Each structure stands twice: as C-alpha cells, then as structure tokens.
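Example record used in the benchmark description.
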Amino acid sequence: MGEVFLLWIRLYYLKSNSQCPLIIGSNLSVKGYLNCKNYKEGVVINQSNLTRYPGWIIKGMSWHPKTSKITNTHTTGWPKGSNSYRSQSRGSTWLTTVRYDWHNSLWKGRSAVNTYVQLRHYSADAHKTVVDKVNSLAEWCKSNPELVVDRKLYNMICDPSLLYLAYNNIKSKPGNMTPGIVPTTLDGMSLEELIKLSELLKSAFSPARRLKIKKMDKRGTLSIAPPRDKIIQEAMRIILEAIFEPTFSENSHGFRPNKSCHTALQHIYRDFKSVSWIIEGDIKKCFDTIDHTKLMEIIENKIQDRQFTKLIWKSLRAGYFKFKIHEHNLIGTPQGSIISPILANVFMHQLDNYVESIKKQFDVGKKIRVSPEYTKIWHLKRKAEKTYDIPLIKELHNKLLNTEYTLFNDPGYKRLHYVRYADEWIIGIRGSKIDAEKIKELIKVFLKDKGITLSEEKTKISNMGTDKIKFLGFQMSRQSHVKHFGSPRKKHVIQRMQLRMRLEAPLDDIRKKLYALGILKNGRPYPRNVWRGYTHRQILILYSSIFRGYLNYYPCAHNYSRMATFLYWTLKGSCGMLLASKFNLRSVSAVLYKFGKDLKYKEIKLIKPRN
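Model output (structure tokens):
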C-alpha cells in the first residue's frame, strides 16, 4: 500500500501478532499512530484478535480519508503531532499554520490561522475543544445561576484556541485595526503570535491611548487599547458572558446577545401602555465612575479562580497615556474597551435587582375597578331603554363614549415597569406622582451608596398623557384612545380605542443633525461642499449611507413615512446641488436630465425608502 493513512484506535484487547508493527506496542491501553509510509512491507491487522468495537472501526473504514479534494488543496493539510484528531462536535476550532516558502504553490504572503469546522473524523476517544468547554460552562451557569463557578478559567483563556476564536470575532471590525500606543495591529496574526499572547497573559496589560470625542453637546473620552490586547479582552469577554449572561435581568437590554435598542423599545411598547408617570433616568458618567474594588467584589463572589480575576484587575488598572505620561485608572471601566460593556452590566445588575425588589413591594391589586361614574351612566341608560326614551338613550350613550370604563387612578391597583439600556433607564408607574418621586429618591440613595451619581439634569418625572418622553433616540407619548371619524351618513362618530403607545422619530433632532452636517440651511437643502472632491460614485454612497442609517434605526416609528419622505427629498436635493457644482451644470434639473431621477452612476444610485 503506497498511500499514507493514519489510524488512531484504542486497543482494549490485543494478542501477540508477529505481523503487527512494533509501533503499536504490546500495552493494551496504548494510543498510537500507524503510518504505512515508514514500512516497506505491507501491514496486516488480524481482526480476529481484536475486540468487537475496535474491529468494527477498522472494518468500516476505507483507506482513503472521506474528505473532498477542496479541503486538501485549500487548507494546510491534516494535523501533525500528538493531537491529530479534532473534536467531532460542531464548531470545533483547530489551529495550525501554513508554511509559505518560495516553492510552495499556496504562498499568499504571510502565515495564517485556519479553522476546521464540521469535518468528518474517526476517533474512538474524542476530546472537548475550547468551544465545547465554553458552551458547557454557559449551560452549567444557566442551570445553576446562584452557584459559584469553580472551574479553571485561567487555563481556558491561555488556550491558543480560545485566543483564535477571540481574534476571529474582532478581526473584521475596522475599528479594531486602530493602533494603540504602539504601531502594531491585528495584521500578520499566526499561531506563533497567539502563543506569544498566551505568554503575555502572565504580565500586565499595555496602557491605552486616550482620545477626546464629541458626545452630543458635550465632550467625552475614548480609550484605544493595543489591538493585540483586544484579543485577550475579547477572550475574557467570551468567558464572562458565559458566566454572567444567565444571571442578568430580562429588563436589561444593553450590550447583550439577541438584545438591542429595538428590543428595549418593544418592551416599553408592550408594558408601558397604561402607566401614568415616567421616570427618565440617567447616570452621570457611569462608565467612568464605577468603583474597581466594588466591581471586583461582585466578580470574586461569583468566580473562584483567582488567577482569572487578577487578569480582570490588571485590565482595569492598565491606565492610559496622556501627553506622554502614563496615568493609572483608579475608577471606571474605559469606554472603547471590549470588556467594558460586560463589566458595566455586571455592576449595573445591582440596580436591576434593586428595582425588581421595589416592584414586588409596589405592585398591589389583581384587577382594575370599573369607574363608578361609568357604572352610574350605564344603569341610567338601561332604565331609559326600558321606557323607550330615545332622546335620553342617545344622550347617555354619548356620555358613555366620553367616560373612562376603568378607574385609571385606582389606589388599590398599582404597577411598576422598568427597562434599562446601559446607563440609561426608564421606569413607568401606574400610580400617583408622589409614588414616582419616592421611587426616584430611593434609587438616588441606592446609587450613591454604590459610588455612582444620578444625573439631576437628565433625570426627570413626566406625565405620560401630556408630555413627550425621549428614550434611546425615540420620542414616546400615549396615543389618544378617542377616535373621531365620519361617513356620509354619520359625520361625527366617536369610538373609544385601547390605550396605545406612540413611538416617533424626533424630526426636530434629525433636522438639527442635518444642519450640523451642512445638508440643510435656512430650511432648504444645501450642498455639502466638503464632499465635492469625491467621485460621483462615492458621493452617492455617502448620501445613501446617511439615509440608510435613519431608515434602519427607525423602521418601527409611527411617523416613518413622514420621516422617510422628508429625508429623501432633503438628501436628494443636497446631492443634486453638489453634483451640479461638481460637473459645472446650471441647476438640479440639468443634473436630473443627465443622470436620471435617481442620480444614477452605472449600477449605483441614491436609495429610496420602501413603500
């Protein structure tokens, strides 16, 4: 047999056989390789001397590997070494490097990391990969959310397989290619580099590069860690998410898998229909003021592995460079850090638990009482129906339509609803304004005890029926549930509808942003001359990206049609004026005549909103 084959079996029973090569050995529990290329004579295994299970494996296997030619030509080949076969589980990760020499036909310029997923393997003793370990940890934490994690997490994070998985998660994001205080980036990553990173875990993290950024009407800071440190942070985030995600509240929607701003708004639309008062809450510099000691106390109460918790401590204390001076972080989780959102959620989970404890005490009553006024009018109407007094029946019927069926401010029925996204939270109260003020004061005292401050400027109490509340970029109000409509026969008909929330895109705020970009001026479209140097194709892509961003964030807005129409004609007018200036055309009409109504350039055109 001239072809090379590898066979890995566990020999439970093997009698002496002179035809078997010495590489297998005489020990009954030896794991070994059988390589025909190293022997000039053919190898014959006497299956009669084996137990039924290993014999069945050998009999069922062909001498050719059951993989396609594509796998052999487009990967680095089969693994070599003491751990040749991967796990049979789906999504298993295997690391290897390609040797790129001048005589190698697959040379592409630099070493790479390849992944083997869903390959067919033959192993009687498969082991768990790092993906299996993380999934197993997540399942255990989900089934035992109150227990302490006693697994060796530090050994898991030092595994190059997990570092590769972390690298694979962040490699496609352009922001992660931004260099920190050193010029190294994620480019040129290989198995050797990942092994170096696993050794780097024994030392401290490199300080980050801090930038000043503009946030709405204020200025904030953004910390940029070295890209290689981001791989370690992503690996830590994977493990922390597996541990803490099952313990988080359903009312928390920020920086969590399968949750977003839209799930938070959906939660509000579902539960806040009948509330009377809204507490709009915001924490002053939440990420920058979290106490490291209190945060580590929460983490150490959940995780027993002190080597792993020390690694988290090092990432928090890494510091940053300011005017070439190394500053240390005494408090806060740096914004821009990959691990910062999950750590902030771990700390803010205390607020979620506290509000849920308030809710248990605040919620009273099982059913809303019917309004006494409505009941009185209904009985008068029934009496009028018995006497066939038609004018009185019509009058009482109109009164019923304008009267609340339930006692909206029933003191025997109270409810509290809560939603949080990162450091912004909102509480809806079905009760009195006094109740809302008491709850706001309780939360203020609780946050002060935890070392963070409630922002007095952004935290306010609003009436759901008369005020408009802003949360996560949406404008919320209660829709009037008295509907007036007419017909040719009945011109003034009143119908009482159910209580509903109205979520709208804030058109005034959108106009302000377009003014700031220079796309609007004096209430009319204006060319953004900063883009005049770009090509026709690039200009269309830039205008379409602005339009697409608004359409994708506000698809559930009740004024979607109005917003989309306003944006379409504003951006189209600005784009037409810019193209007229660029190509020396007299007017926007000349631009439309030359490029068409969509300002098309080959296959690229200005996008339109859906009907």
